[in-house]
C-alpha cells in the first residue's frame, strides 16, 4: 500500500491558495480514481482505494501545514509502512515556476516547514515527493502572505495543467515507475508575461 499525502491548510479561506496545491492534487486523484477522501483519522481526511491496481491511502492532513508530521507519522506507523517505498508527499515549491513539477525520491526539507515536520516525526527524509511550482515570492512580499495568496489567471491555467500531470505521475509512481515519472515530468515551463 502507498500513503499519498497532499499538504495544505484546513479551512475554506485557504482553498486554492499556493500553499494548498497538495490538497488540489489529492482532490484530482480522488476524482479520477473515484476515492472518497472523507474519513477522519489521525488528524486528517483519508480515503482508501486503488490506483492502477495498487492499494492507496489518500491523505489531506488537517493539522495546518507546519504540523503535517503529526498527522502523517502516526498513519505510517499504524499501517507499518516504509517511507522509502510506500510514502509520496505532494506540496508547493516557491523555487519552481508555476506549472512546473519536480519529482524526487528523497531529499532535505528545502526550507518547507511541512516537509521539515514530516522528516522530524517520521525520522526519515527517504521518501518520494512531488513538488508543484507556485512561483517565487516578489521582493516586496512577506513569504507567509505570498504562499497564502491565490494564483493569477495565467498562473492558474499552468497550475491546473500541473495538477493533472501530478496525477499522471502518481499513476506511474505507484507502479514502481518513478524514474519514468521523473523523465516525463521534471521539465521546465514558463508563464507568458502577458498571462501573469
From TrEMBL:
Top-level taxon of origin: Bacteria
Known partners and oligomeric status: Monomer.
Site (Stabilizes the basic form of H active site to accept a proton): 92
Pfam families: Pept_tRNA_hydro
GO MF annotations in UniProt: peptidyl-tRNA hydrolase activity
InterPro entries: Pept_tRNA_hydro (IPR001328), Pept_tRNA_hydro_CS (IPR018171), Pept_tRNA_hydro_sf (IPR036416)
Described function: Catalyzes the release of premature peptidyl moieties from peptidyl-tRNA molecules trapped in stalled 50S ribosomal subunits, and thus maintains levels of free tRNAs and 50S ribosomes.
Swiss-Prot/TrEMBL site (Discriminates between blocked and unblocked aminoacyl-tRNA) positions: 9
Gene (UniProt): pth
Protein name, per record: Peptidyl-tRNA hydrolase
Catalytic reaction annotation: an N-acyl-L-alpha-aminoacyl-tRNA + H2O = an N-acyl-L-amino acid + a tRNA + H(+)
Enzyme Commission identifier(s): 3.1.1.29
